[in-house]
Every structure is written in C-alpha cells, then in structure tokens.
C-alpha cells in the first residue's frame, strides 16, 4: 500500500509539473494570487500584478559560532557556514509552484554527503511543491513543504511535524527549527468548520540530537545509532473554526515518535515507538493580551519484542500561555507546560519571552528562557539583530544550557553552550 501511494505521489507530481510548464508557454498575464498557509513565513513576493513572471528572492549569509567551554568530543567551532538561500515562486491560472533551497558550505560538518532527510550535505531542499484547487472548497499542496500548527511558542504538543533541533541549539535562524517533509496536504473548507489533512507517505523523523554536532549525556560518548521505522507513513489532521474572537482546533496524529523514545537491546539501537496523539487548542483575546491553551494525549503502542524497552509511557501534555505588550514596543509572553505520566515523574516547564524593538524597529532584542522547576534546569536564548537597511542585517546571539544534574532534559546539553554571529544580505 505504501509503495502504491508513493507511486501515486510521484505520478501526481510529474503530471502536474508537465501541465504547469505546458501552461506556462501559453499563459497570459492574468494570474491568480498566491495562497499562503497559516503560520507559514510571509515572504514578500511583490505586488499581485507581478505574478506574470517568476519571482526570485533569497539571501546570502555568513554565520559563525564558538563553544564557550571545552568538549573533547566536539570541535571548538559550533557553527561556521556560508549559506545561499534561493526562493522561486510562480502562479499560473490554475496552479502555484514554489522552490526553496539552501546551498551550504559548512566547515564544521563531518558528513558532507547529500542527505535531504537529515539535512546533511551541500543543499537543504526546504520546499518544492505544487498548490492548486480542484474545487472551490478544496486546496491541495503536493510535494516538499514546511508545516506547523498549534498554539505553543517553541513548545509543541499537537504539532508533530519534523523539527531540526540541531539547527535550533547551534544558533541557526529560528526558521530552521522547522524541517521539511514530503507530503500531500489537503485543506477542506465548510460552513461549520475547516479541515486540514496531511499525509506523509514515508515517515520523517526529527533532526534530533544524536551526538554528531551536539553532545548529550550518555554512557558511551559515541553518536547515537537509531533504527528508523520501515515503510511507515504519517497522518496529521486538524479540524478548526472560530467562535467569535476565539480560535479553536481539534487534532489527531498517527505515526511514530519524532525522536527516539526507546531502545532495542538486541540490535543495540534506539527506536521510534508507534504513536497516536489526540488533542485540542484554543486561542483568544483576554484582557489586554492573547491567551492560549492546548492539550494532547499521547498513546504509545505496546512493544512487540521483549528486547525493546520504551523510555516513555503514555502521557498527557498541557500548555497555558499569555502574551501582552507591556510597554511601548516591548512584548512579554509566559507559558506553563506539563507532562503528566502514569509510571514516571511528571515534568513541569515554564517559559518567558521578552522582545524589544528600538531605533525605529531596526534593532530587535530578544530573551527566551525555558526553566523546569522540578528538574531544576533550563535553557536561555539571547539574540540581538540590527537591520542596517532593507538588504543588510547583522545578528549576534547565544545558547546557554544550565542545571546542576545531567539527568534533566536541558542540563544534559551543558557542554554545548555557544556564542554566534551572522551577516545576512537579502535580495
């Protein structure tokens, strides 16, 4: 079944691409406006009339960083790369197409061979999709795309799309926390509610911490060996609607844990248990700010082999958040997050974000702190960026993990504290 669906996806892409380019040779200049997904980065592709020709944008960025302590298992440089992003978009009468890729020269990476799933190599293909509407109330997006939903601020409960934690902890731009997936996304619009369904024919894990560029607490000090699920797919669904100013949603996910959550003692490899998630969220104005709440129940399958041990159990996850502008161009947001486990200790987490804009919004200062009161560890992100003009941007920041024990989630990464800087030239 999976092979048939993969074949169907390939045929659909081939057919649609051929149709698009055949249409391009005969199309006129009255083109439909491009539709962007909710939560997707809103890049400026120009005025509506400009869609008669392909739009090209991107940037050239140099980014370097160093570790703030010695680590015998890692290089002193935490990041040292030159990145060229190229985005191309074109709207035809019946189709939108988009290409988005980063070409990277990375001197820190040990693996240079191209691997689009893990992000290794000279190119990270971020997006390559075709978007069209076969009916007035149906949108289809087929191909490589970046997706996200949910209400959390850097805390994810019902967003089970792939994340790139190596980029996030190493000091890349926050946009690279979202990893791409090869998927078919169907959006249905009804009078009572709307429905998004995302089918990923081949399971796509997180770009998780495995010891390659970031150290973590383990007994061997060797990179983690993991066995990805074979020939398994993923399905994510969201039904959503608004009640006045309140935005509500129900969620469902079927697939596997996105990062390793168990160990096969026979194979001596980490495993990804099968997972189902049921959830809900709400986001609404409250007082002078925005309130959000989200909940999800994670159900793991029973191991089929006695040699497989899961590191996690079924659990509830819940989140409460509030955001408000507390002074002129100064925004604060707080969150409380909890994981309630049946046979393990619960995990509690609080977050605080402060964001200040100055100098006619050219200078932006940001502080984001994660802190677990029961594990007594945390993670502090500091960032300052200055937009010299419309094209040139300077940035400096740091990632700092803290805690007295190596058993906490964040404190196990203490050897990865780093300071980084970047120069970005957009076009």
Layout of secondary structure:
Elements: H1 2-24, E1 55-67, E2 77-91, E3 95-106, E4 123-135, E5 138-145, H2 165-170, E6 181-189, E7 194-200, E8 234-243, E9 246-256, E10 262-264, E11 269-271, E12 274-286, E13 289-300, E14 308-310, E15 315-327, E16 330-341, E17 347-358, E18 363-372, E19 377-387, E20 392-403, E21 418-426
Antiparallel strand pairs: 1-2, 1-21, 2-3, 3-4, 4-5, 5-6, 6-7, 7-8, 8-9, 9-12, 10-11, 10-14, 12-13, 13-15, 15-16, 16-17, 17-18, 18-19, 19-20, 20-21
Task: Please provide a written account of the structure.
With 427 residues, the chain is mostly beta strands. It has a single domain, classed as Porin, CATH 2.40.160. It is 7% helix and 49% strand. The chain is built from two helices and 21 strands. It has an 18-stranded antiparallel β-barrel. The longest helix has 23 residues, at 2-24. The protein is globular. Residues 1-51 have low confidence and may be disordered.
CATH class: Mainly Beta
What is the string of helix and strand elements? HEEEEEHEEEEEEEEEEEEEEEE
Helix count from the secondary structure assignment: 2
Quickly give the structural class: mainly beta
| Subunit organisation of the chains | single chain
Strand content: over 45%
Instruction: Give start-end ranges of low-pLDDT stretches.
Output: 1-51
CATH architectural grouping:
Beta Barrel
Overall form? globular
Give me the count of strands: 21
According to CATH, what is the topology?
Porin
Average pLDDT confidence is: 88
- Domain tally: 1
**End-to-end C-alpha gap:** 44 Å
